[in-house]
Amino acid sequence: MKATATASEIAAAVKAGEIKARQVVAVALKRIEAHNPMVGAFTDVTVTRALEQADRVDDKLAAGIDPGPLAGVPFAVKNLFDIKGVVTRAGSRINRANPPAEHDATLIQRLEAAGAVLVGGLNMGEYAYDFTGENAHDGASRNPHALDHMSGGSSGGSAAAVAAGLVPLTLGSDTNGSIRVPASFCGLFGLKPTYGRLSRAHSFPFVASLDHLGPFARSARDLALAYDAMQGFDEADPAQSKRASEPTLARITHPVPGIRIAVADGYFTGDAETQAHVRHVARALDAAHTVRFPDVQAARAAAYLITMAEGAALHLDRLRDRPEDFDPEVRDRLLAGAMLPAVWVEKAQKLRRAWREKVLALFDGVDAILAPATPMKAPLLGQKTAKFGGVEMPLRPNIGIFTQPISFIGLPVAAVPVWLDGAELPMGVQVIAAPWRENICLRIAHQLEAAGVCRAPVARGFADD
To answer: Would you say the C-alpha torsion 165, 166, 168, 171 has a positive or negative sign?
Structure first.
């Protein structure tokens, strides 16, 4: 079996007895050792734990016990997830002085209960306040499709690890776009679920009222497989909804007639290249109608205020005691957030509630909305500016112009990868649905993949060893 097989292919082969879970994991560990120095995806590799977990999967199979739907699948997590026995860095220098985590994050526990095998922690932007994938302390997580380009952030290592074929499945976080941006830059499928759908327990926060956790994969089926395994109420996350789990895997291959799909125009139009990628997806789905999100710029401004204020409140002691140990760009934005007047933040929260009601009304007429995931393909590492709407602007804070308004109100989104003919780099498209309709996002993503419209290949140069 290919070392770069998808999660679904690996689990099927392991459960059929065609290959041992230990063999799969050993190959993944070998690939990480060989390729990670080029990519910079992993910060921690849990070799002993991984091999022991793989042996447990094999022992269950030998005893006639089903180890779960992700049997033997290697996975890794952004290093803001707690991994028992490993220090939770959250991409920072400061956290490295902390003791190792005493518990695994809930989502790690659930994936392992489904048979998956954790192989390590992944590089990320400091404290998740980043869109580039360039960590000031651990180095950049590079884009495997073009190593001098950004992987995106803040879940850059999560995307780079999958795009390089080091593991078939990873977890990241998304506050303002940190799953969808790296998925777009690295040509992957990514899922940001509804706010409150998946437990965030035992993970390091950024902005509690905006934080989501979710998976990256090279197929929509793998996203659904992982998503189903991670669902379920967890009282340890105070933001999690008690809404019942809604399995999606069995339904994603069903035809999707009658689903009403529209394209977001206005603010979400973007430039000619961005429009070309969205049109490519829209044509395949016969999405001829458009919708317009109201007051998007005001919503994005409010999201910025809430991000800065909540992020600063979380880090006040660190900013006071160890300011020199921050990435200067992160530190300065957090300091600015600490000085925001409280009345501004209150107004931002009021706008948030009102804007959510306006946007939800759009779904009275449609089931899903298409929008670009990023305003450009992956920029060069170190690039500081880019054109937005024909105006040269700072790059880092503006990469998330299309993702930030959507996570602001917690809508579920599947990012799907688009490679136009002859393109050296991909660009992602967001498939956005109403709250709790992840099944719609995933069914559309699967339909696009099955039709060959969206694909997520392992990067050239990282072929099977």
So the answer is: negative
What lies within 8 Å, CB to CB, of 281 at 6+ separation is 287, 370, 416, 418, 429, 448, 453, 454
Give residue 264's identity as a one-letter amino acid code. A
At residue 249 the predicted structure's pLDDT band, cuts being 50, 70 and 90, is confident
C-beta separation of 400 from 376 below 8 A: no
Q: Which residues are catalytic?
A: 78, 154, 178
> Which tens digits make up the pLDDT trace of 279-295?
999 999 999 899 999 99
Average pLDDT of the chain to the nearest whole number: 96
Q: Name which of 100, 99, 96, 120 is nearest 108 in CA terms.
A: 120
Pair 400, 130: CB distance under 8 Å: no
DSSP-H helix ranges across 237-341: 249-252, 272-284, 296-321, 328-338
Nearest Cα neighbor of 186 from 212, 215, 150 is 150
Element (H, E) at 161: helix 156-163
pLDDT at 255: 66
| Pairing status of strand 169-174 against strand 212-217 | antiparallel
State the DSSP H helix or E strand holding residue 49, giving kind and residue range, or none if neither.
Answer: helix 47-62
pLDDT for res 465: 64
- Is the pTM for the entire model greater than 0.90? yes
Q: Looking at beta carbons, which pairs linking 11-14 to residues 24 or more positions away fall under 8 Å?
A: 11/69, 11/70, 11/71, 11/72, 11/73, 11/115, 11/225, 14/57, 14/61, 14/67, 14/71, 14/72, 14/73, 14/115
Q: What is the CATH number of domain 7-450?
A: 3.90.1300.10
Number of separate helices (H) and strands (E) present in the chain? 14, 17
pLDDT tens column, 146-182? 999 999 999 999 999 999 999 999 999 999 999 999 9
